[in-house]
Amino acid sequence: MNQSDKEVLLSIKNLDVVFGRGKRAFKAIDNVSFDIYKGETLSLVGESGSGKTTIGRAIIRINPCSAGEILYKGERISGSLSRKADREVVRKIQMIFQDPAASLNERATIEYIISEGLYNFHLYKDEKDRMAKIERVVEEVGLLPEHLTRYPHEFSGGQRQRVGIARSIVMEPEFIIADEPISALDVSIRAQVLNLLKKFQVERGLTYLFIAHDLSIVRFISDRIVVIYKGRVMEIAETEELFHYPLHPYTKSLMSAIPVPDPRIEKDKKLFVYDKKMHDYSVEQPSLVDIGNGHMVFGSPSEIEKYKKIRFGNQ
User: Fold this and answer.
1) Model pTM?
2) Quick one: CATH architecture of 3-278?
3) Res. 100 pLDDT band, cuts 50 70 90
């Protein structure tokens, strides 16, 4: 399917997010633009502090946009909205947080935590309907009905993240931002949670923005990947395209950090360290350019020509 044939669900256009004012102002997101298509998983990848979570929080209106805009189904959702529009955004766009312990209210039972959105938006006909919705979603995430009367501290990290997923899913959202949802979990639990997210995507036609710092995890779950460095987009491509043809040096450095299961190969592996001084932008200004095949790279005109040669050779 061509990119042009796909339905754009969410669009980020020339987004800036600035924290602080005057001399203390810090630009966390710098002129970021990308689209998310309905039904896909788009992963946002970069090291800690690159601005991934800031973008996720800008979408759900926790972080205000300093410039640019965010559109959902063609309607602007950034900036000031009417109360009705704001509630609609909250209901349709949900977030699963990185730390399942910190994002759940320790004093509330699992039943109340999952019900909170239903209460706030009155998404049930009566008490019987509310309990039926909760019991169904608890079963779907692999927990038991008797877990509903317990508290978060009585659960493992993996179980708590399942509660976090249930809390999002019960709202029947269309779009979910998963902010490093497995990085706080044991390796043995990670695949279970990823499989659960994929299952819901297939069954409910969900769209995901998956935020991560580890490229090896996103390969399994993503349709496309956006690589971000210090608040700027460096590269965007379909998953296998990016893994076969990583063009930007920063993407290559992330690739080189992926562990290899064979200890002998891992021992001899050379890490590629990215240094932004390797670019000379004193004469030519860089921009994000589509070089073909839906592959976008950030670079100066001469760098873009070089990337095209690497990707397409003398075709």
Assistant:
1) 0.92
2) 3-Layer(aba) Sandwich (3.40)
3) confident
